[in-house]
Amino acid sequence: MRLLVKICGLTRLEDVAVCTGIGADLLGFIFHPKSPRNTDPALPANVRTCGASKVGVFVSQTADEINDIMQRGKLNLAQLHGDQDPDFCRAIGANRVIKVFWPDRYETTAELEADLRRYQTSARYFLFDSGASGGGHGAAMDTTILKGLNSPLPWLLAGGLGPDNLDQALAVKPNGLDINSGVESAPGVKDNAKIGEVFRKLAGVR
Predict the structure, then answer these.
(1) Entry pTM
(2) CATH class for domain 4-205?
């Protein structure tokens, strides 16, 4: 599969238009009141995506709440940033879930792989983020544990990614990149020049 690019933390229609126009595969909309990028289902419900998939990012909602927001927001995928178990993921729909993991929680690659196998039939993609919980930290992770990773599902890499550190991210051979604060001028406000630079740098690998 070709390298997927997700631009997350979208809060403005003009930024959505830039991302769809430049070829983003996934558009991320955050539904977490504590986030400065929190938005309303009306935003994704009313945007034209030009074929890109719309992703809702969730932390602490119940499965019923997530399914309701996904319906109202006309979302394609749910990115789960909490400690939701496989049964929770299946309540959303295995083919609709991007399950988040934090490699910093694991001592070895083998331990991480064992946890991934628990979710291989209850998610569509995995996403590896920096820190030990939550998201939006804006900090890059130590990707040593991901080198040679044998994942049962395609996975995306997140964590402070932007124009200046794409080479390090690509070195661990992810199936996709999740980009947020690295292409912003302020939380929830995307920088068109930075987005353009990211896609220019990735042109040879997509």
Answers:
(1) 0.94
(2) alpha beta
